[in-house]
User: What shape does this take?
Amino acid sequence: MSAPAPSMFSPQASEMAKSLGLKPGKANLEQFADTLTLLARKDRRILAVTSDSRGSGKLGPYGQELPDQIVEVGIAEQNLVGVAAGLASCGKKVFAVSPACFLATRALEQIKNDVCYSDMPVALIGISAGVSYGALGTTHHSLHDFAALRAINNLSILAPGDNAESRLAIEYAARSEHPVYVRFGKAPLYDLPASESLQVGQARVLRNGSDLAFIATGETVIHALLAAEHLAVFHQIQTRVISLHTLRPLDSESILQAARQCRAVITVEEHMVHGGLGEAVAGLVLQSGLKPRFRIVGIPDEYTVTGAQADIFRHYGISMEGLSQTARQLLA
Assistant: This one.
């Protein structure tokens, strides 16, 4: 029997989550599958196309219930995207589902030309992104997808941080008349504090503060939120926390407001520090003439360590304790 996966949180962080009243939800991939099933029941135009990824994409029940609305192409990511684009050109609403590490590299030309250049309304679903496949090593880490896809025109890019954001992303992708990329990890997530409005392209401010701002995306958001509480309780540092679930279109207003009103800004992402959220925010802030203290927290430019996602996060400081320490050093 294999050993259980390590907890994403330290005991202290788990207690902090309880004190904030945060409740565990399901994995975003499960929310994706549930939402897609609900939508596909009502709309026969919706199709899921998979590259031997039905199981890892949590689409087994979907396929059993709606066998005429799923297409399996096998381990052939370029074919996956080409087939999805062709079906979209015939009026279908296609969700192309594949591990993010392969979807954004093996099929990059097809994404660029068949989907984005041709403006096909395909929803590209990158599953098990970041270091979700942690123990399988660098070949299965997806730390490049933001960088590669941000360089392609005409593609919305979303990285939900909890189940509510995931539901929003899939509903948006189903409505969109243009290409969309949605990035999902594997881990069960905590539900983030509710917002009155949740819109694609509009950042979600989870906590206000003027000493420091954490701007995070995807599965790193919960760690930034816990770090903000830790900083307030133990160091009297008031921290703003922004869930930037949409990397394109970027919510420039929320980012620049944080850069103006806070002494320091830290971006947090499950991605290489080059080409992702941090550099997008840095470019926007610098070109606007603002100069807050600034730090990018992500995976550094090195051979990534191998291990469970929780271990990799802790190793690179993507944790309540690591982010709190980075914040204190930046403000010192």
